[in-house]
Amino acid sequence: MLGVRLPLGVRSLLVASVALVAAAAPAPTAQAHAHDLALFLLEHRVGLERYSTEERGDTSVLTAHFEYLDRGTKVALDTTLTYSSKDFTPISFESHGKSYRYFSVDTSVPKAARTANTFTLDGMAPLSAQSVLVRYWLVHGKPPIMRLAPSGDSIRIREIPEGTELTYLHSHPARRFVIEGVIWGQEVLLLDAVDFEVIAAGTTAGVLNFEAATGDLSPERAATLATIVRGLTLDAATERPRVEPFRSSHFALTGARLVDGTGNSPVEHAVVLVNNGKIEAAGAAESVRIPKGVPSIDVSGKTILPGLWDMHAHVGQAEWGPVYLAAGVTTARDMGGEFEAVKTLRDSWRDGRLVGPRLLLAGLVDGPGPNAFGAVTASTPAEAQAVVRRYKNAGFQQMKIYSLLDRPTTKAVVDAAHSADMTVTGHIPDGLTLREAVEMGFDNVAHLLVRGAPGSDELRDTIAFLKAHGTVMDPTISWSELLGRSPETPVASFQPGIEHVASPLRRLIESANGGDVTPQQAQERLTRSLEIIKALHDAELPIVAGTDKGVPGVSVAREIELYVQAGFTPMDAIRAATAVPARVMGLDKDSGTIAAGLRADLIVVDGNPLTRISDIRNVTHVCANGRLYETAPLWASGGFKP
Ligand SMILES: [Zn+2]
Questions:
Q1: How far is the C-alpha of 595 from the C-alpha of 593, rounded, in Å?
Q2: DSSP sequence for 449-461
Q3: What is the mean pLDDT of residues 63-70?
Q4: Ligand 1 centre and the CA of 70: distance in Å?
Q5: CA 82 – CA 525 distance, rounded (Å)
Q6: What is the pLDDT of residues 481-495, one digit of tens each?
Q7: Residue 326, helix vs strand vs coil
Q8: Which H, E and C letters describe 327-358, residue by residue?
Q9: Contacts (Cβ under 8 Å, ≥6 apart) of 273
Q10: Tens digits of per-residue pLDDT, 196-244?
């Protein structure tokens, strides 16, 4: 089993807990009865889906109220699905509210068209409606492809027979379904084999990991089940065909312009020789001899650059892997996800069980309480030390501080991280100022949290202070642009990469905007932020490109474009997504530039980003750790459009 490796103790716990579900599973009746699903965001129990099904003769009515608290923000969705009691064909559908703090759902289908193999649904919530979808699929002979109304998206469902690796579920008649296309990527639904109520689900809210587990379980057992179902979603990813590299081991790229990321002038008609995961040689054609028998790939007219870095990632699903590579990202720093999920993805991408970039990890820790982000919290220095030790032992590079940590606990995280040879990044906790956090020892600061009007003394002082401390900033300005846009400004007008995105996610992203803001106001805010970023850059503070998820993969290109808009040279903007992050992460002797002996992480793009920065979007080939891929099959493998 690829996903979560369960200690035996956890397995026996599960046997006990699923037996409990079996005992509590209600017999199917004609009456309405309410069910609860506990909801988890990054494994933290945050809310409830309460649903009931009422059978009125030929027609059944599912009513669901889905509600959770995301870091203090209420997210709620009300849904009514009417369907045929006999064969689960939808009759009408209403779903209004939000499924994630930024993403709205507002769907009304008063009279569903009874088209073959079509089901009415919009998004992952409510999970109980997805159980009806599965029943529809089963009753209609398991069609290989189905359509969703009203979106028209195609979805695929498959059932995974319980394998020997799932012995911990054998005591319970559960059925496991993998659904692809309701969200971006795959979800796993564990349904009661008798009454088809949801036992557990692994899905995403926005793109953050989100789980549900039956409310019949104790909180501890529900949480364990949520972790297990996340492991099953990662297992499901290994069952899909994998994109194979176009070349690996020993090969040469010839004829392109080489921008090596050091800041040196480009070399025209260059050769880059890759051997066994490393760059063997790189430079002008006449200076690099291609050994006999080594295949050459002619990439004349294109530009070779170092692989890009996303310094503010939130991965959690396997589909990120090929999408990142297709966008040219060969290293991503995860800034907070589920402990087991990010470790499994890191290891699977590294070992080639799944296709994806190198993943560096920052361990998320927040203060306790219902508004916490994620399940890992600390409320005392002793707890802080234990959390840091756990992340360190799992090979995390950094700690990611979150908003609710109190002052002494924050200090304990910082000190424990530094003694463990880890660096510290994060949000500034609610009770601290930027200066206090930096004085406490924050090495990096996430998001653009620098205050002061461009040109003001306040800004100048802050910049001087940050410079004195060598603070690294990842401004995630592309994310601010996306969330702060005026509803009148289409996403595609500044982010053409949205065209790649799997349509269920595209709809969600396009539902987010800055609310009551005119295009001019949004532009003014963005310009002010860009002026601050430029001032930080002019003061030689390290700026690293990060997306905070954004539009998966392609937001890195937007971040780079915005740095050029701020006034960076194209070379400096590219270096903010290559050489600078490598240096910041202590990996500049390993990667971030193109030179003999370094890791073979590079991209080939059509055009010349030094003269037209948006050419950075035209990645035709990506070489990740010496494995060369064409990007079109990677996009498709991640469920995106090439
Ligand atoms: Zn983040």
A1: 6
A2: ---S-TT-HHHHH
A3: 97
A4: 13
A5: 45
A6: 999 999 999 999 999
A7: helix
A8: CCEEEEEECCCCHHHHHHHHHHHHHCCCCCCE
A9: 251, 252, 279, 280, 281, 282, 288, 290, 294
A10: 999 999 999 989 999 999 988 888 888 988 999 999 999 999 988 899 9
- CA–CA distance, 622 with 469 (Å, rounded to integer): 36
CB of 463 closer than 8 Å to CB of 533: no
Plot region of 320 (φ>0 → left; ψ -120 to 50 → alpha; else → beta):
alpha
Length of the chain measured in residues: 642
350-368 burial, b at 16+ Cβ within 10 Å, e below that, comes to eeebbbbbbbbbbbbbbbe
Q: What is the maximum alpha-carbon separation in the chain?
A: 82
User: C-alpha 221: how far from its chain's center?
Assistant: 26
The Cα-based distances of 632 to 307, 322, 448, 629, 635 in angstroms read 17, 10, 34, 9, 5
Q: How far is the CA of 322 from the centre of ligand 1 (A)?
A: 21
Residue ranges of alpha helices (H) inside 116-272 are 127-139, 219-238
Dihedral angle, C-alpha 221, 225, 228, 229, nearest 10 °: -170
DSSP structure class, residue 166: G
Q: How far is the CA of 140 from the centre of ligand 1 (A)?
A: 42
CB 504 within 8 A of CB 469: no
Are 296 and 252 within 8 A, CB to CB? yes
User: What distance, in Å, lies between the first and last C-alpha atoms of the chain?
Assistant: 31
- Tell me the C-alpha to C-alpha distance, in Å, between residue 144 and each of 96, 183, 292: 29, 17, 48
Q: Take residue 464 and report the two structure tokens written for it.
A: 């001087």
CB-CB contact of 59 with 91 (8 Å): yes
**CA 566–ligand 1 middle distance (angstroms):** 22
**Residue 462 parent element (H or E):** helix 457-469
Cβ-contact 446, 426 below 8 angstroms = yes
313 Cα–ligand 1 center, Å: 7
Per-residue pLDDT tens over the stretch 275-310: 999 999 999 999 999 999 999 999 999 999 999 999
User: Taking the C-alpha atoms of 279, 285, 286 and 292 in order, what is their torsion angle to the nearest 10 degrees?
Assistant: 70
Q: What is the 3-state secondary structure (H, E, C) of 597-642?
A: CCECCEEEEECCCCCCHHHHHCEEEEEECCEEEEHHHHHHHCCCCC
- How far, in Å, from the CA of 353 to the mean position of ligand 1? 26
Position of tokens 């996303």?
A: 310
In contact, 427 and 402? CB cutoff 8 Å = yes
- Cα 349 to Cα 236: distance, rounded to the nearest angstrom: 15
Predicted local confidence at residue 525, as pLDDT = 96
Residue 591 DSSP label = S
CB-based contact 360:331 (threshold 8 Å): yes
Cα of 547 from ligand 1 centre, angstroms: 8
Q: How far is the CA of 502 from the centre of ligand 1 (A)?
A: 21
Alpha-carbon distances of 439 from 329, 465, 559, rounded to whole Å: 33, 10, 28
The answer, yes or no, to whether residue 13 has pLDDT greater than 50, is no
Choose among 374, 366, 312, 313: nearest CA to 339.
374
Report the b/e string of 202-212 with b at 16+ CB within 10 A. bbbbbbbbbbb
